[in-house]
Specification:
Layout (H helix, E strand, L loop, with lengths): L1 H36 L6 H14 L3 H17 L3 H14 L4 H15 L6 H10 L2 H4 L2 H10 L7 H15 L5 H13 L5 H17 L3 H10 L6 H41 L2 H31 L7 H23 L4 H26 L10
Helix pairs in contact: 1-2, 1-3, 2-3, 3-4, 3-5, 4-5, 6-9, 8-9, 9-10, 10-11, 11-12, 12-13, 13-15, 13-16, 14-15, 15-16
Length: 372
């Protein structure tokens, strides 16, 4: 009896060892494939051969599922999408309760959603998407833009349009060409909501970049449900900012014209000496005041992470001559109450206009604080 039990135990041990040996062979083949695929120069053929051995063993479900998944990955990289789908199905069947089944299922769903046109559009898109040189080549992007017009409706056409639009917006600096593609994506019923939101935001940004502020504001208002409310408000403020920009330039022009005319008249009357005496009185005080405004404002701005002292220093450099010109004009101009009041209003408005122009050019990040 004891001999029989001992014999059974020995057989069970031998069977367990045999199974372990077979499993270790399958696992070793998958490990060999992973090693071949690692590094800067993957050895794809060696990896395929190792994965084929792991699949042929059919002993360790987890290793076999991983092997099929890795084969699907290689096939997808080669553009063999139908074969990649077969590999993913095999991974799910070999190891249904493992992460390889879950990852295979995700990829299978991704490929199935992009199978329109027997994968021909996806192959065309991936050819550009996986080639860094092509994605930065204007000719390659233009060719893809032409080809995608023949793609059937679906995710691939949407993704191709976004790739083209983002290439034109970013690396190539051609926002006008991007606008049409972004409009198509934003109106495409096959695009997912997240992509439509992204396309809408980039469309408005592209319209702003081309200077079409009215259209940008209209687009943001018409599709505000897809955009952040603060962004919509910011775009609408650009209309106000543009109007203020025109008004500021007009004020500076009027000031230059009237002050120049007044000083020219004084020169003809030989009364500029009066202006010179007044400037000598004002200059020290004006220099101190403007210097304080420029350096104090610049110091406070530089204390913030996104702050920039340059606009305040430029403001000081611009305001000082304005003050001096205004004082000279006042000294030689009409001394009636209406004339003095008009000059005062114009000179004060001119300083504000110069401040806006400088901030608009060199510190636009400060303008929202003024409601612009």
């Amino acid at each position: 009896m004891r001999c029989v039990l001992l014999a059974q135990l020995v057989c069970l041990l031998l069977l367990t060892l045999a199974r372990a040996a077979a499993a270790s062979e399958s696992r070793a083949a998958v490990d060999e494939a992973n090693l071949a695929l690692s590094g800067e120069a993957p050895k794809r053929e060696i990896a395929r051969a190792a994965l084929a051995r792991a699949v042929a063993a059919k002993d360790d479900p987890t290793a076999v599922g991983e092997a099929y998944f890795l084969l699907g990955q290689l096939d997808e990289e080669d553009g063999a999408f139908p074969r990649a789908m077969d590999d993913d199905r095999a991974a799910i069947g070999a190891a249904p309760n493992t992460r390889w089944a879950l990852r295979g299922s995700d990829r299978l769903e991704w490929l199935r959603a992009r199978s329109e046109g027997d994968f021909a559009p996806l192959i065309r898109l991936e050819k550009v998407r996986r080639d860094p040189g092509a994605s930065s080549d204007p000719a390659a992007i233009a060719a893809l833009a032409r080809d995608l017009e023949s793609f059937p409706p679906g995710p691939v056409r949407v993704e191709a349009r976004m790739l083209v639009a983002e290439a034109w917006l970013g690396r190539m600096g051609r926002p006008r060409e991007a606008i049409g593609e972004l409009e198509q994506v934003a109106r495409d019923s096959t695009a997912d909501p997240l992509t439509q939101r992204l396309a809408e935001r980039e469309l408005v940004d592209a319209l702003v970049a081309t200077g079409d502020i009215e259209q940008a504001a209209a687009e943001a208002s018409a599709h505000s449900s897809r955009l952040d409310p603060r962004f919509v408000k910011q775009v609408k403020r650009l209309l106000v900012r543009r109007a203020v920009r025109w008004a500021a330039r007009a004020v500076l022009g009027v000031f230059a014209l009237l002050a120049g005319w007044g000083l020219a008249r004084a020169a003809r009357r030989h009364t500029l000496g009066t202006a010179g005496r007044e400037l000598r009185k004002l200059a020290p005080v004006a220099v101190v005041f403007v210097g304080f405004v420029a350096f104090a404002g610049g110091f406070l701005a530089s204390r913030y992470e996104a702050g920039n002292a340059s606009p305040f220093l430029l403001l000081g450099a611009a305001v000082l001559p304005l003050l001096l010109v205004a004082r000279a004009w006042s000294a030689v101009g009409s001394q009636t109450g209406a004339a003095r009041a008009g000059r005062g209003v114009l000179c004060g408005t001119t300083v504000l206009a110069a401040t806006f122009v400088l901030l608009d050019l060199f510190g636009p990040q400060y303008l929202p604080g003024f409601g612009l």
